[in-house]
Amino acid sequence: MATKRISRAVVCAIAAGVVLAGCTTTKTLQTDEAGAGQSDRSEGSVLRRVPKAQREDAPDFSGTTVDGRPVRLSDYRGDVVVVNAWATWCGPCRAESPALDKAQQELKEQGVRVLGVSYDAGRKNALAFQKELGLSYPSLHDPGGRQFLKLPRGLVNPQLLPFTLYVDREGRIAGATQTPVTTDDVRNAVTPILNEK
């Protein structure tokens, strides 16, 4: 009897994964051909850069922050935006959050903003996480990361946290990292984007 329940649970989990996979866009990420997708490795983080001519518009992530304020990615148009997906139950997310906050503080005058996206089901834990770590950047409340299902296929796996997207001044995806980042990683990723004409 218990085996049947477990088997049903496994089948349901697989079916849910297939359904979620079917919700993603059919577009495939086109990265720079130089160097097999022009992946930069620094501090253990692998950055996939997207050439300017091949960039797609980022989905206009929108809703309310973990503390209930309205937020929309397009409100940051004109700035380079570091979009970081996290959850309170993700240890690497906790480790990288202070580095993201430091990067925003250091690069804010140059036009860099960080927008977190919390996968947590409830706002209470997410808000406590932000307060505990003293994070100054806002985080969109997006239970389960549903808004990331609109990303181009192959950019990141939205079910694996943390990941970070780099959005250029025109609101297009300029790069992505599927690993935790350091302040130096963020600086190295955004500097070429800031220097674009």
Structural write-up:
This protein starts with a helix and ends with a helix. Residues 2-39 have low confidence and may be disordered. It contains five helices and nine strands, in the order ααβββββαβαβββα. It has 197 residues and is α+β, with helices and mostly antiparallel strands. The longest helix is centred in the N-terminal third of the chain and has 21 residues, at 2-22. It is globular. The chain is 33% helix and 21% strand. A seven-stranded mixed beta sheet has the order 1-2-9-8-5-6-7. A two-stranded antiparallel sheet has the order 3-4. α3 (91-107) crosses α5.
Main β-sheet, spatial strand arrangement = 1-2-9-8-5-6-7
What percentage of the residues does DSSP assign to strands (E)?
A: 15-25%
Topology order in helix (H) and strand (E) letters: HHEEEEEHEHEEEH
In angstroms, what is the radius of gyration?
17 Å
Number of strands: 9
Uncertain stretches of 5 or more adjacent residues: 2-39
Q: Mean pLDDT, nearest integer?
A: 83
The shape is globular
Helix content bin: 25-40%
Biggest sheet record: 7 strands, mixed
* End-to-end Cα distance: 65 Å
Q: Which structural class matches the secondary elements?
A: alpha+beta
Number of helices: 5
